[in-house]
Amino acid sequence: MTQLLRKFDLTSLRLFVAVCQERSIARAAERECITPSAVSRRIAEMEALIGLPVVIRESRGISVTPVGEAVARYAEAVITNLESMEAELSRYATGAKGSVRIVANLSAVVQFLPEDISSFKRVFPEVDIEIDEQTSANVLRSVREGDVDFGICNAIPGTEGLDLRRYRSDRLVLMVPAGHRLCGATTVRLHELIGEQFVGLRCDAALMKLLAEQAQKLDATLDVKIRVGSLDALCRMVHVRLGVAVVPQQIGELYINTLNVQLVPIAEDWAVRTLMIACRNHERLAAPAAALVNFLTGKR
Fold it and tell me: Alpha-carbon distance 98 to 105, whole Å?
């Protein structure tokens, strides 16, 4: 009997369980859509392997021997485990279970991902998600190097050859401290800010690169006196009157009631940015990652 694991097949086990449940080879054959003779042959092969009878054939059906009862008990456990495995693998295949690694820029992490991930987790609670915050340039590098499943960044140069999906749009506004000359202004343009003292993010942040590019078009440079690593710190620096700052509108609105600042809309096209989801090949994403991308892009 040491070779049973190699010689038993799942079909025979399933048919034998059906025979035990129906107490009839004919009824089991009908249930499993197979001929009674084929079922009888399978049982005979099992008995030959075991060396003991598993059923006793009677005029009105069959009775199961003690050996057969033991075989049926273990066969049912095997079938149940395989069905559970199939169900779990199916959850992986449909994106319902697994893990996803994302790298995203500061704007996406702070403004949109918390609520979107929360909604996704309500649908796919067994998907684990790891999010790393990086600049847009580093997001693209991580995606190209295959360190993550996908990235979220601003639409910037360097996305060539990547599979892109539109995620969100955000609008930039000017944040000024209370009492600033632009408090109460309905809109502002960048040329009106030349000469202002700015608080900014790190030089490699997409927001700062955008501001530098727009200032260059005006043959000017922005006077950035202080640089910080987070939007939270940026807003607090404006609050204590260390300068003005350009921030995403949704971030600025979070601080209107807690900091002594005001927001002024920027009336220029560059102030509306597009956030993109980037991956090397959407078709090759693992199911959990593909499910999350589809969710974030509205394909739910």
Answer: 23
CATH number belonging to domain 170-271: 3.40.190.10
pLDDT in tens, 141-179: 999 999 899 999 988 888 888 999 999 998 999 999 999
| pTM value surpassing 0.70 | no
Q: Quote the longest CA-to-CA distance of the chain.
A: 103
- The whole-angstrom separation of Cα 132 and Cα 179 is 37
Residue 244 near residue 198, CB atoms below 8 Å = yes
In angstroms, the CA 67 to CA 47 distance is 10
**Residue 13 CA from chain centroid, whole number:** 39
| Cβ neighbours for 104, distance < 8 A, ≥ 6 positions apart | 113, 131, 132, 133, 134, 139, 151, 152, 153
According to CATH, what is the number of the domain 97-168+274-296? 3.40.190.10
Separation CA 141–CA 281 (nearest Å): 15
pLDDT tens digits, residue range 189-227?
999 999 899 999 988 888 999 999 999 999 999 999 999
Collapse the DSSP code of 195 into the 3-class scheme (helix H, G, I; strand E, B; otherwise coil) and give the result. coil
Domain spanning 4-93, CATH class: mainly alpha
- CA-CA distance, 250 to 111, in Å (whole number)? 6
Nearest Cα to Cα of residue 212 among 226, 198, 230: 198
